[in-house]
Specification:
- This protein is mainly α and 61 residues long.
- It contains 2 helices and no strands.
- The chain has helices spanning 2-23, 25-49.
- The radius of gyration is 25 Å and the shape is elongated.
- The mean pLDDT is 84.
């Protein structure tokens, strides 16, 4: 009987998690999109901050 209750509890917990994902799907996708945009903007900023060799060609003269 204990095993049956444990299996039932696991099934109900899984169903609750799936329902929570379905209910909050829009919020989840907005959060993931915000994180993606933040990472993309930081990567673009970092790439812009790295100096190219062409910027320092006149320093050798």
């Amino acid at each position: 009987m204990k095993t049956v209750m444990k299996v039932l509890a696991a099934v109900l917990a899984t169903a609750a998690a799936i329902c929570a994902v379905i209910v909050f799907w829009e919020n989840i996708t907005q959060g993931v999109g915000a994180v993606t945009n933040k990472v993309r903007s930081r990567r673009q900023y970092a790439e812009g901050c790295v100096p190219d060799d062409e910027d320092y060609t006149d320093w050798d003269e």
